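Recap from last week: sequence in, structure out.
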Amino acid sequence: MLKEQGVKELLTTEEMASYLKLRPETVIRKAKRGELPAIKIGRQFRFDKNQTDRWLLQNLVGRVLHVLVVDDEPMIGKLFEETLREIGVGVTATSSSVEAVGLVSGELFDLAFIDLKMPVMDGNELFKRIREIDERLPVVIITGYSESELLDKVIQQGPFIVLKKPFESDDILNIVGTILHDAVTKRMPREY
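Predicted structure tokens:
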């Protein structure tokens, strides 16, 4: 399905069932009860993916999800803020790895994006410190250097996802959607 600027991405009942890992009958039942945001077109339900993501985040988690972005390019943080605000995700952006360590120590984040090449403390060291503070925090490494010794060092520390520069809003949404959707649907009560 092609998504044009300003056009909503509408899913069929079957697509929504697959997305939420539910049976189609359950999706229809939840839509009829108003438990799942839906649009009725003719006799068929359609589901706005962005609206569904916002609904999932707000209703199942019970709080606004929060993402940390650490990149020495301020425009990267701004791009994340503008992109994630649309789906109701809070963003804290910093250009300082040292500040990021303090933020992770004092706040609850659901996901962290960290640049690999940073002044003072590189992404490898920051990743190591984040793991010491919160070993369960999902981390995405942002890099323009997908084949480097520094990335090889980070790989030795454990699982993470790599987001290659340059990237666009859709790349951010895809990664955040995948990671947070998995976390949210694991908490979702099943109806059979």
